[in-house]
Amino acid sequence: MELKFIIKRSYHGLNREKYKVLLPYLKKTAKFYQKSWDEINDGFFKTVDKITGYSWKYKTYFCFLSPFYRGISSWGGNKIVRSWRENPYSMRKITAHEILISHIFTIFEKDFQKENLTDKQKWALAEISAWAITGLEKKMLKFWPWISEDEKYPLNHNYPELYNLQRKLKLVYAKKKNFRSFLQKSIKIIRREKL
Fold first, then answer.
1. Contact partners, residue 18, CB within 8 Å, separation at least 6
2. What is the mean pLDDT of the chain?
3. What is the reported pLDDT for 12?
4. Phi and psi dihedrals of 43, rounded to 5?
5. C-alpha R_g of the chain
6. What one-character DSSP code corresponds to residue 95?
7. pTM of the model
8. If both were cysteines, with which of 51, 73, 176, 194 could 182 make a disulfide (CB 3.0 to 4.6 Å apart)?
């Protein structure tokens, strides 16, 4: 498995002039991000395999750099979008979060289709699962050891509608037998929530 940082004008929503101005900086950022990610690439993908018990759907994932968007996942695809304005090291956790959301959507597709979750329920569970994996798993924290306690399992993000559910699922995650059992129990809880 690998993650490649790339630049594509259509992912920026920029006119040709603005794109020309930003292009040299986007290229430099892509190199810095790639170098930083390559330091954790193999360990990250292998650790996620072990934690989730599911292999990755794609061999290669692509991260498009954007001047506008902080993070976007493709919900089961192999493309994500990330901001180009971050430190090459501090960008790792959110980048991992976005890739994980795609991975979790492939898990839903593979083993949880019969649950008939709505897109909003899947999204909520994928977001919360990604926060849990990137922030509550000691094996993952070694990839971004500099983050603060508040950043590990953040409750100050742009989705306040998830705060209560996120608090409940943190307890489920702490007591899980494995990732599959966490998803099974979480699905029962999420069905009772108003999203």
1. none
2. 94
3. 57
4. -60, -40
5. 17
6. H
7. 0.94
8. 176
Other Cβ atoms closer than 10 A to 88: 16
Three-state SS for 101-148 is HHHHHHHHHHHCHHHCCCHHHHHHHHHHHHHHHHHHCHHHHCCCCCCC
C-alpha distances in Å from residue 93, one per residue of 50, 147, 178: 18, 9, 22
- 185, 172 contact by CB (below 8 A): yes
Taking every pair of Cα atoms in the chain, the longest distance, rounded to a whole number of angstroms, is 54
CA 49, chain centre distance (Å):
14
Cα–Cα distance for residue pair 77/109, rounded to 1 Å: 11
Sheet holding 2-6, edge to edge: 2-6, 60-66, 79-83, 71-73
Distance CA 122, CA 151 (A): 23
Taking the C-alpha atoms of residue 18 and residue 31, their distance in angstroms, rounded to an integer, is 20
46-100 confidence digits (pLDDT tens): 999 999 999 999 999 999 998 888 899 999 999 999 999 999 999 999 999 999 9
The span from the CA of 179 to the CA of 172, in Å, is 10
The terminus-to-terminus CA distance of the chain in angstroms comes to: 34
Q: Tell me the C-alpha distance between 150 and 96, whole Å.
A: 17
- What is the C-alpha to C-alpha distance for residues 113 and 177, in angstroms, rounded to an integer? 21
Q: In whole angstroms, how far apart are CA 179 and each of 123, 170, 184?
A: 17, 13, 9
Domain boundaries, the chain: 2-192
Determine the distance from the C-alpha atom of residue 143 to the mean position of all C-alpha atoms in its chain, rounded to a whole number. 14
